[in-house]
Amino acid sequence: MLNQETVDKLSQLPLNPQTTWAGDRRKIKIAIKPLGRSRYYPDVILWINPSNRTVLGSEVVEPGSPINAALDNLVKTMQRPMIGSPLRPGRIVVCNKKLQNLLQEVLQPLGITVSYQSKIGEIDLVIKDMEGYLKSIGGPSYLAGEGVTPELCAKLFKAAANYWHSAPWEHLTDSQPLTIEINRWGAGTAYAVVMGNGRQTYGLAIYFKLKNLEDAYLSQGRASKLLMKEMDSMSVVFGRADEIGGRALDEIAEHGWEIADPLAYPAFFRLVNGESRELNAQEMEMLCACLYAVSAFVARHRAAFALDMPIPTISETINPDQIGNDVAVTVKYPVAALVAESLTKSAKREKKQGSGAGATRLVDVAELDQSQLGEGAKRLISEMRKPLNRLIEVVPANNEKGLRELLAPGSRAEIALELYGMPFFFNILGLSYGDVYLRTAIKCVGDEVVETFINCFDPGGKVLLTKTTVNLKPHRKEYRIENLDVGAIRDGEEADDESFVDANVWRFYSNEEPIPIIGLKHCDEVERLFITSMIEQEFLIGEILGGVKLWRDFKRKAKVSGTAATWAACVEYIVVLLNFLEGSQSSVGANYGVSGKTVGAKYKEIERLLNIHQYDERYSQIKHLLKDSMRLLLGNKLPKIPLGAGRGKSFWG
């Protein structure tokens, strides 16, 4: 059975009632021989799209393992299918009664129908293809390719081990392909995709045609027989020992080829016009060169990739010593040929698919036909045009004054601009300025506007930033931007302000030098003290901004007396409590030369006057499981949990 956390995650996946998956668990006629164990015939769990026999998920398991293994693999497949986007299929067909009963009990509450069919021909064909490819009970051989020798395999295994240890997926995602140009073997130009950032499949894929790379992205994983027939690629994929077959394991043991990790047994694949075969000697040499070159290129330029922001073209020619002095591999990033035209076609397809009545759709404000919307939506659009259009004007012009006028006084966005200046402010928000095009848009359900956000494009039309939510607030006789909630960079997945800063801007600056505070002239002595101290202690940007907002709210309401050091210590201690960080009254006070007893007495004044509570959304960055669970139970009326409750133990216990 599934725990509640897994059920909650699955319920958040989109449900596609028109999609049918088929699955089964059965024994296959392929023997495997794990290290130190006897050879045996395993079961395979398989989930496919029966309309085109595309494999969506699979796993090899021991024959005696529980039937729940099929459910576990299905959950993984829905969350991260091998092809396509995460989703809940509307219907699943299986040819095992016990499996049907298990799945029906678990999946029916999630809107998924599970039915039984005594025979599923599409699965039979997939299994037959699998067994036919492996050709023999022993499984595939590394030495089966034309001209391949044990010495050449040793060379390729060493290159694969080096690639595994360099872990380029820590710095590149599979949505950041590289251009590869090799001066040997008639390779010409190819395109490399690093796999592993999603923590599911690790390896390297090489596409020999730009069209194959474009199809892989723009089809969003919806592979067709036509696309597969045109595929020209090779790849290395890492896995466990029991995933590569007994014959391959015997060859590794016999020749002593290098294995980097128990999870890093390499499997090599070659597709030519959709037909699979073993790598020949020349292709092994080529893959060796690519593995070394990509490892070196990513390692040397990882600081640029860490920013996850638009960067100029990087190009470097690498001569892998392990291959030979006459081999030169030129690696470039990004792939310039992936241009706006193809992305625009993809966006139009998505827009067309989501245009039905009551469906969620994205509408470009500049092209909006207001007759599509209700009166309430029209009024909102009319009111939001002025501040949003003004934002578009001030960003490319680097107009700090114009931007400041748009921000509601006292908002975190205004404080960020004040403290860190224009460039760093836009890094925090995930935007850029200069040669960037912004386009305002709204999200509609039926005829009602439910969200406003900004799309950001580079001059070539590539989406840089999506779904940045704009919260508007009435200010005098106009609307002003109260907050900009950071959207996703390039990959379309949402990221909140804290995670974006922590993963990119903060990492970049904290590696080498402190954050360049330029706006301390706008701060009082208390703020200067705790901002400087918290930066040295590597607090996150959002936590520091929360402290500034907290102190300014307190100053407006209180007659402040006492030393600046005392109040600075109190602000830092409240930030520690709000964000569940380590630190006592004594340890925080010591940072400012203040006793713990003084901190304990004074911070209570701030807490009482501002009525601060745990998970206080005015000042806290925490998105805590307890808070989310309580919202489900109580709606938006959360009880005010005392500040500091639950430190070192459960709040309820």
What separation lies between the terminal Cα atoms? Answer: 27 Å
Task: Compute the CA-based radius of gyration.
Answer: 29 Å
Helix content: 25-40%
Biggest sheet descriptor: 8 strands, antiparallel
Provide the domain count: 4
How many helices? The count is: 21
Number of strands: 19
The percentage of residues in β strands lies in 15-25%
What structural category characterises the helix and strand content?
A: alpha+beta
What would you note in describing this structure?
- This protein is an alpha+beta fold.
- The chain is built from 21 helices and 19 strands.
- It has helices at 4-11, 68-79, 97-107, 121-134, 150-166, 210-218, 225-229, 246-255, 281-300, 302-306, 340-353, 375-394, 400-406, 412-429, 497-512, 525-536, 541-557, 564-578, 585-590, 596-610, 625-634; strands at residues 15-27, 43-49, 54-61, 88-94, 113-116, 178-182, 188-195, 202-207, 232-239, 265-272, 275-277, 314-318, 329-333, 360-364, 437-445, 448-457, 463-475, 478-485, 488-489.
- Helix 14 packs antiparallel against helix 17 and helix 18 crosses helix 20 (596-610).
- The longest helix is centred in the middle third of the chain and has 20 residues, at 281-300.
- The protein is globular and about 85 Å long.
- The two termini are 27 Å apart.
- Residues 220-224, 307-311, 339-369, 432-437, 488-513 and 648-653 have low confidence and may be disordered.
